[in-house]
Amino acid sequence: MLLEPDLELAALPWPVLAFVEDYLANDDRSSDAELAAHFMANGLTRGQAIRALRFRGAYQDAFFLTHETPIRCGARPHQA
Length: 80
What we know:
single chain; mainly alpha; 0% strand; globular
C-alpha cells in the first residue's frame, strides 16, 4: 500500500514543514500522542498532526532529498 502525498501538509510554510519532517525522522522516543500534541502546540491542527503521523514510519531509518520527502512525494509505509 502506498502512502499518497499530502498536498495540504506539503503546502505548509517551509519552516513548519521542515519542523514536522525533522520530528518524524528523528524522534523515536515520543509516542504518537506526544508527538501529535507537540505538533499542535507548534501550529498544526489536530487533523494535520494526525495525518502527519501516518508518515512517521516512512521517515525513520531513511534519508531524503529536501523536496523528495514522503509528505511531498508519497512513500511505501515502513514495515516493522
